[in-house]
Amino acid sequence: MRTFLASLLAAVCLACALPAAAQPATAAIEANQATEAQLDGINGLGPATTRRILAARDQQPFADWRDLIARVKGIGPASAERLSHQGLRVVGQPYGAVPAPAPADSR
C-alpha cells in the first residue's frame, strides 16, 4: 500500500510539473535588430516608445542597456527591468547583466 501511495504521489507531481515545463520560454528580442511588430509585441512597449527605440537605433545601434536608457525617453531602470523580463535584450544581454560603473578613484 505504501508503494502504491508513493507511486501515486509521484505521478500526480509529474502530471502537475509537465504543463509548466511545456510552457515556452520568453523568446529573446534583440533591440538592435527587432522589427516594429516584434517590439510592439512586448508587453509594456506602446507604439510611441517603439517608435522612439527605432529612431534612436537608426541613428546608432545601442551599445548596452545604459545606452538605450540614456537615449530613449520613457525607458528608465524600472521599465528596462520589466522589458528585460518580457524578453528584450540589448547586445544579447538582459537588463542587469551589465556591470555597474566602477567607482571613481578618490586618491
From TrEMBL:
Gene3D superfamilies: Photosystem II 12 kDa extrinsic protein
Signal peptide: 1-22
Keyword line: Signal
InterPro entries: RuvA_2-like
Record's protein name: Competence protein ComEA
Classification lineage: Bacteria, Pseudomonadati, Pseudomonadota, Betaproteobacteria, Burkholderiales
